[in-house]
Amino acid sequence: MRGLLIKDFYNIWKQGLWYAAMIAMFCGISVIAENPAFSATIGILASASVPLTAIAYEEKDGWQKFAAAGGLSAGTVVAEKYLLGILFSFLGAVGYCIAFAVVGAETAAAEFAAPLCMQLFAPAAVLPLIFRFGIEKGRTYMIALVVVFMLVFIGLMPLVGKAEISQPTFIACLSCATVVILAVSYKISVAIYRKKEF
């Protein structure tokens, strides 16, 4: 697993730096606009796009054939891509937390937690599509899906603080849903990957 992560970081370091710079820039915009949502939306995009970029390099170089011949299990290959997305979602989360702390917005805890979970929803939703349809078709679906995620995020955020459910209950349910969605998405991706012919 560590070797796969090192390989991907080596392949995508330029794109990774670009996304890190975008997260920093959107964090600055959030502070200036006094709206932490800007930094949250770029985190959603980064967590979905970085694994896709890594898979694109693998498809270009025919790495999947090498991995299959080398005996790498589908579970290991797929899990590494999810871990890559999660790592960049954490990077986006750091930017969001910084913007949130600097702005000092008087925001409910649920409104703070929801964007963090949304950043984990993105790779969970995108990766099965990429493994199923490949980079070309999958990229189109990913862009559409990320746009939908952002619109849902922007539309629902004002409603989160007004929800009648208690804040701790909402956060607990959202956290559990995030874990379940990631687990189900991973299982689907592994099943798809095992059926692929390289």
Strand and helix map with partners:
Elements: H1 2-33, H2 37-61, H3 63-69, H4 74-103, H5 109-160, H6 167-195
Count the beta strands: 0
Uncertain parts: none
Domains counted in the coordinates: how many? 1
| Helix content class | over 70%
| Radius of gyration, in angstroms, nearest whole number | 17 Å
Q: Explain this structure to me?
A:
By secondary structure, the chain is mostly helical. It has one domain. The chain is 88% helix and 0% strand. The protein has six helices and no strands. It is globular. The model has no long low-confidence stretch (mean pLDDT 79).
What labels describe this entry?
198 residues, mainly alpha, 6 helices, 88% helix, globular
Please give a quick description of this structure.
The protein has helices at residues 2-33, 37-61, 63-69, 74-103, 109-160, 167-195.
